[in-house]
Write a structure and sequence with these properties.
The complex is a heterotrimer. Chain A is an alpha/beta fold. Chain A contains 16 helices and 14 strands. In chain A, strand 8, helix 9 and strand 9 form a beta-alpha-beta unit. The longest helix of chain A is centred in the first third of the chain and has 20 residues. The termini of chain A are far apart. By secondary structure, chain B is mainly alpha-helical. By secondary structure, chain C is mostly helical. Classes of the chains: A alpha/beta, B mainly alpha, C mainly alpha. Chains in contact: A-B, A-C, B-C. Chains B and C meet through helix 7, helix 13 and helix 15 of B and helix 3, helix 8 and helix 10 of C.
Chain lengths: 419, 327, 289
């Protein structure tokens, strides 16, 4: 699948020159001269290599398109925008190091990242210490906009509990109240399962489940247990490849004839690698490309398709797109690149049509800085109409603020710097 | 597999360097905040280099000076990091204490694992070091309530150091923090040099050069290898503790065998028969990785190539190579 | 509860056989050449990806043979060019070299085939459920069992009865004597290395059909294979076979009682074995230990 990024990541001719000692004398004056039209720099720390690389690549590509778009329309505060992409290699230490590099050396005005919630959190600690504006495009665990929320951090993707809440109702209504969980044993999985369990208990249901190591590739043991329990719904909370493999084995074992399958996220990037016979279940999509009655969505989809030769734009592309546009929105409303002013400006701010690419109101909630966007609940099926990305029928659309807990219940107490 | 004989090794001037090169190393390290930003670097890169440099020098105590290969030193690096982080999080708001406890945890781990594997030889020894390293990795990765699991240990921040009325803010001032790490590094490196100059160090070198002969001389080889393993783990765990302070975070990947491989290649790249070699190796490796991974998404190939080129063409490392040049 | 455990024991055997295939190749290279091949999991990935390339042209069955052969030949070439010069040196060098190779191959796979996972399509004829009672015995899993058993039997027959195989076994025990007897040790090691990599490639095709293809697909199999060798005892192929099965079953049974411990348990078994029997279950007391 051709997500090899054509433009490549090479950049920073400045540093190239600076790297060789002899060139310093020549490079230094040119830096000073350029300061008049110095670009607004945004640093993007994402796991371009490692198990989340497909998601990270989409996010980065979406952000690149947004930078082109913003620059075409006059940049931010009249200055051109430059995106500096750094690979966190799915490692916290590397991610923190890259953030420090972007802040200390490149003097970025905003940091984006990371797909991995653990790294996203570590980054938020660094950006908070250095008072740098941060957007988390796609790290889902609740605390980032919950009990660990920070004044300088805004999140585009949903919290795990939003995703769980959006799909729970459909699953209970359609299939029943006896569930079995297959959940990865880390923060993302735990918070997700907790949210599902809360909904299930409120409806008076019962459940069992397995917490599995993140890297599990064979799910037969858990599926055997699941069948013995005889649930109405199997909740596959795994992520990425593990989720695909779990679903494949579920169908291979013929369990699809005995119970329903569901869960929170099932990303488009993952769907591509599912064999057609295994495309099943009920899942959330945090953005879906096929919205024929929303011109902006179709335009964004075309833009991504053309630029990167992929079947369609994914939610991850959209996260990157929204992230860059949010920086523009914040900076231009604040008329400043000061992090505190930008953060104040973006609170409660609505995204315009060409950014939100969907119907209804999409805004950053005041109090926890969580974006409230629609959640598309859908059912996958083999590709239809000759379009390899036409893989999901959207069954219902849940507005973000209907799915989210009220701010008072997220555990977020935001403290702003006094200076 | 060295061609040097035992007597040669004993009579040759020790390789800790002469006063001039030692003075040069310290001058360069002390002046980092001045010259590094000028050539496009940043101070926290140097902090990271010091942490990995100490880890590689610690490993080299075993690899280069005792002739025993460990491919699982990430375990002690990571134990140091977790020990430090857990102390700050649950026990005390004292950065020096956290480093000490991190070192203690890592050293105990080294002593324990060392005792279990010290009688094994060659490849089998190496495999066991890897396997024990992975045990620590999976414990940190699985024990959600205590270590934070896959997401890593968070919720601790390095604390300013107060000496009487004087408060050194290593929390927010990156340059002061660099000097804190440098001071810790200096203490460890001084200790290491003392150990290597002492008769104990000479015994280790004798074991490296010819284990059988050392045994015939009545040296309790296993005990010395175990001791060297434990001391090596101590230095590496101090490095790990410092690394946790750099990130204000400890995560399971610091325990993974990939980090072990990185530490070994740093030692080999710089020159594992010289005292300062691993630091130079760490500086080159960390800086190159930092630079290349910003330039190209294919940085892994370049890192891989470094391994291949060093192994095939510079097995004695940069310092070993320079020493052979007719200067 | 009992049926649940029994099911999982059986299921563990299937998982264990996978470890076995991986571990045998790793062990062959380790035993004769003293090389800990860190790139073994990446050769596995290459096997899967080459099959993905070949299937549209020559079909699954031919790819099942051709892809491992190609990977084996690549292994052979690498052995001849860059690994052979390291044999006389300290084992740390060959280890570092394969470590670097692992990085390079992983990056090449990601660059060539992209970061997204790719499905490797297996023929429908072997992808049917077998029975409703033993629902976890899908056709493909039975097929994997069959192929692994076939490969293992062929390998053991080869090692026991062919001239080359006997020399490899002899070389494992005492390479110097074998060389002194006038046997071409270089050739022996090359062939042995190629064969080990061939097995990794084969595992890659089989794994690709089961879990799909991605650049990191071999990473999670490397350590279990490693542990299988240590538990079984370095130097013993039967031991490696046994080790793979034991940890497969242990992981399966652990999933019944304490799912998140299914990875740690194989390390606990390793420690237990090392404490009770330091050279491994069937390890030879020799130069390896």
């Amino acid at each position: 699948m051709g997500s090899r990024s054509a433009p490549g990541m090479a950049r920073r001719t400045l540093v190239k020159a600076g790297a060789s000692l002899g060139a310093i004398a020549l490079a230094a004056p040119s830096i000073i001269k350029a300061r008049g039209e110095e670009p607004v720099r945004i640093g993007f720390v994402d796991p371009i290599t490692g198990i989340y690389s497909a998601f990270a690549q989409s996010e980065v590509n979406g952000a690149k398109l947004a930078v082109e778009d913003v620059n075409k329309k006059g940049g931010i505060l009249g200055r051109p925008v430059e995106l500096l992409v750094e690979d966190s290699a799915n490692d916290v230490g590397t991610g923190v190091q890259k953030a420090l590099k972007l802040i200390n050396r490149d003097h970025v005005s905003a940091i984006f990242g990371d797909v991995n919630s653990g790294i996203a959190y570590a980054l938020s600690q660094v950006t908070n210490e250095h008072k740098v504006f941060q957007i988390v495009p796609g790290g889902h665990t609740d605390p980032i906009t919950g009990k660990d929320c920070k004044w300088n951090v805004f999140r585009v993707c949903n919290t795990t509990s939003m995703d769980a809440n959006a799909v729970s109702g459909e699953l209970i209504k359609r299939f029943g109240k006896k569930w079995y969980f297959i959940t990865p044993d880390y923060a993302y999985g735990q918070t997700l399962q907790a949210a599902f369990v809360k909904n299930l208990k409120e409806a008076g249901g019962e459940y069992q489940g397995d917490m599995l190591p993140l890297s599990t590739t064979d799910f037969s043991a858990s599926l055997i247990k699941a069948r013995a329990y005889g649930p109405k719904v199997l909740l596959n909370n795994m992520g990425g490849l593990a989720q695909v493999n779990c679903m494949k084995q579920f169908v291979q074992f013929g369990l699809d004839k005995q119970m329903a399958l569901g869960g929170a996220l099932y990303e488009l990037e993952s769907l591509y690698s599912v064999p057609r016979e295994a495309l099943t279940g009920w899942w959330d999509y945090e953005w879906w490309w096929n919205q024929p009655d929303v011109p902006a969505a179709m335009a964004f989809n075309d833009l991504v398709k053309k630029a990167y030769n992929v079947p369609a734009a994914s939610a991850r592309h959209w996260f990157g797109w929204v992230g860059v546009h949010s920086v523009k929105l914040a900076a231009e409303k604040a008329k400043s690149l000061d992090a505190i002013k930008m953060a104040k400006a973006l609170e409660g701010e609505d995204l315009p049509d060409e950014v939100k690419c969907q119907k209804g109101r999409v805004y950053y909630r005041e109090g926890d800085h969580q974006l409230m966007a629609n959640i598309f609940v859908g059912t996958p099926h083999p590709a239809e109409g000759g379009n390899p990305a036409n893989l999901v029928t959207v069954q219902s659309i849940v507005p973000g603020d209907k799915a989210a807990l009220p701010v008072s219940e997220t555990g977020c107490h935001m403290t702003w710097p006094t200076a | 597999m060295s061609t040097t004989t035992v007597s040669e090794a004993f009579h040759r001037r020790p390789t800790y360097g002469n006063w001039l090169s030692v003075a040069l190393v310290w001058a360069v390290l002390l002046a980092v905040p001045v010259w590094l930003p000028a050539i496009g670097g940043y101070t926290s890169l140097a902090t990271r280099i010091l942490a990995f440099g100490l880890a590689a020098m610690g490993l080299n105590f075993l690899l280069g000076f005792t002739g025993v290969m460990s491919f699982g030193h990430a375990a002690y690096f990571g134990l140091g990091a977790y020990g430090c982080g857990l102390t700050l999080k649950y026990l005390a708001n004292s950065t020096p204490l956290a480093v000490l406890i991190g070192a203690l945890v890592g050293t105990l781990g080294g002593a324990l694992f060392g005792a279990l594997i010290v009688r094994r030889k060659g490849v089998y020894f190496a495999m066991l070091t890897i396997a024990f390293g992975q045990i620590c990795y999976y414990i940190a990765y699985t024990w959600n309530d205590f270590t934070g699991g896959y997401d890593g240990l968070r919720g601790f921040v390095r604390q300013p150091i107060s000496i009487g009325p004087l408060v050194i803010d290593i929390q927010n001032n990156m340059i002061l923090f660099y000097y804190f790490v440098l001071a810790t590094f200096a203490v460890c490196v001084g200790l290491m040099a003392l150990l290597l100059r002492a008769p104990f160090g000479r015994t280790l070198i004798a074991i490296r050069e010819n284990q059988r002969r050392a045994r015939f001389l009545g040296i309790p080889v296993e005990f010395h290898v175990w001791l060297s393993f434990t001391i090596s783990a101590f230095f590496t765990s101090v490095a790990g503790a410092l690394y946790a302070l750099v990130n204000n975070f400890a995560d399971p990947t610091t325990l993974n065998y990939v980090i072990s491989g990185d530490i070994v290649i740093m030692a080999v790249l710089g020159g594992m028969r010289s005292f300062w070699g691993p630091l130079i190796g760490a500086a080159m490796f960390v800086a190159l990785q930092d630079y290349i991974s910003s330039e190209t998404v294919n940085w892994m190939s370049f890192i891989g190539l470094i391994f291949v080129v060093v192994v095939l063409f510079f097995p004695r490392g940069v310092l070993g190579y320079l020493r052979r040049l007719p200067l | 509860m009992l049926t649940l455990v029994l099911f999982n024991v059986f299921n563990g055997v299937i998982v264990g056989l996978f470890y076995v295939l991986m571990a045998l190749g790793l062990a062959m290279i380790l035993n004769l050449s003293g090389v800990i091949n860190f790139a073994h999991g990446n050769f596995l990935a290459l096997g899967g990806y080459f099959a993905f390339l070949l299937v549209p042209y020559i079909g699954f069955w031919a790819a099942l043979v051709a892809s491992p052969l190609i990977v084996g030949v690549i292994g052979l070439i690498l052995e001849r060019t860059i690994i052979r010069p390291l044999y006389p040196r300290d084992p740390v060098y060959s280890l570092l070299l394969t470590f670097g190779l692992a990085f390079i191959i992983q990056d090449l796979c990601r660059t060539a085939w992209g970061p997204n996972a790719l499905p490797l399509t297996v023929p429908a004829s072997i992808n049917q459920p077998i029975s409703t009672e033993f629902f976890f015995l899908t056709g493909y899993r039975l097929f994997i069992i069959g192929i692994v058993i076939l490969a293992v039997v062929a390998l053991f027959l080869f090692l026991r009865h062919s001239r080359m195989g006997m020399r490899i076994r002899a070389g494992t025990l005492d390479l110097e004597t074998v060389a002194a007897l006038g046997i071409n040790v270089r050739l022996l090691r090359s062939f042995n290395f190629g064969l080990g990599i061939f097995l990794a490639g084969l595992a890659g095709v089989l794994a690709g059909g089961q879990i799909g293809l991605n650049p990191n697909m071999g990473d999670d199999l490397l350590m279990p294979a490693f542990i299988a060798i240590i538990v079984g005892g370095v130097g013993s192929m039967v031991g490696t076979l046994l080790g793979g099965l034991i940890i497969g079953v242990a992981a399966g049974v652990t999933t019944v009682f304490y799912p998140s411990g299914s990875e740690v348990v194989i390390y606990l078994i390793m420690i237990l074995v090392l404490l009770l029997r330091p050279r491994g279950l069937l390890g030879e007391e020799g130069m390896m230990t």
